[in-house]
Specification:
Length: 152
């Protein structure tokens, strides 16, 4: 699981003629250097410490553009707040069903998942997203997941 560094991503974007304002660079650096999967609000909070005048709209627009350019990934889990991943390599995620924490884990290459049934639909598969759901160690230790299952 080899992720592109901030410097490599920056060089790639510059070579494609992408305008890189200091705010865009700061957002990209933050996402490339963290192993967390922050929401736009969390990114705004982090970046606004250095750029007090940055707006939430700038953060959203930058995240949208960086996602379009393929240097970050947007992860949606149905709770109305996307999370963003600076790891642009193919990898899987562990998602805690209690607290929402997301962690990266290596996964096998796509060739291991392919089968005749997959291609029978006529799709030209370019990428995939693999996620495992459960309870993170913190939630297991606190018993949070057990309380949820007892309610059902």
């Amino acid at each position: 699981m080899h992720r592109s560094s901030f410097a490599k991503s920056l060089a790639d974007l510059k070579s494609r003629g992408v305008r890189l304002t200091p705010q865009r660079q700061m957002i990209l650096r933050y996402l490339k250097e963290t192993h967390e999967h922050p929401t736009a609000e969390q990114i705004y909070h982090q970046v606004s410490q250095e750029f007090a005048s940055i707006s939430m709209a700038t953060v959203y627009n930058t995240l949208h553009r960086l996602t379009e350019l393929g240097v970050i990934r947007e992860l949606s889990y149905g709770d109305m707040s996307s999370r963003y991943d600076g790891n642009d390599s193919e990898h899987a995620h562990l998602v805690c069903e209690v607290c929402g924490k997301v962690a990266d884990v290596p996964c096998p290459p796509i060739e291991r998942f392919t089968s005749p049934e997959l291609f029978a639909h006529g799709y030209a598969v370019g990428s995939y997203r693999l996620e495992f759901y459960g309870h993170c160690p913190d939630c297991q230790q606190s018993g949070a997941g057990q309380r949820d299952s007892e309610l059902n």
